[in-house]
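INFO batch 0412 | record 1 of 1 | parsing
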Amino acid sequence: MSSRTKITILVIIFILLLAFSIGFFLLDGKGSAAIRRAIPSTSGGTSAETAPVALPREPLGAASVQGQGTVEEKNADLHAFARSFVERFGSYSNQSNFENMEDLYAFMTERMKVATAAFVKTQRQMSQGGSAYRGTTTHVLSVSERSQNSNSATLLLTTQRQESSTGSAGGRLFYQSIELKLVKEGAQWKGDEAIWK
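INFO prediction complete | emitting tokens
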């Protein structure tokens, strides 16, 4: 891939991420912190990481957990948090050294942090010496609840995913569901397990 092509791809990604970041800033009204990648599947399967995007400093579900708002508002906050989390979980590029996964530790339980750290280590070893670009972008299309109580929730999210790599024209577009398990720790929701279906 020529330098010009790489620069063009980076500029397009930057513009998309900037638009995505502005959208999150306007939705939660609290500002955002830059996050670069996603996280591995804690079920032992392979998953993807996330492209440079913004994740709110405070999880979107935090206000609901603290008892503010109606049941509908609480569910909307939880779904928004899950949507944001999964889009980062399912999007990646091997050129970021998987640092974004470490940035997401604040939004994961200890169990998910351990699984993520193991995945990051493996992926970094596999990427050493390789210069070919590979990446996946994930967009959530729908969110549905499997179960929820005051301390945990299981959601099923349907996603559209695009895989790209050096030398592949257009990449591969496919649809995949993911089951996301969230638990309440203190005053916020955190990802505890994610299983691609």
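INFO post-check: The CA atoms of residues 62 and 83 lie 14 Å apart.
INFO record closed
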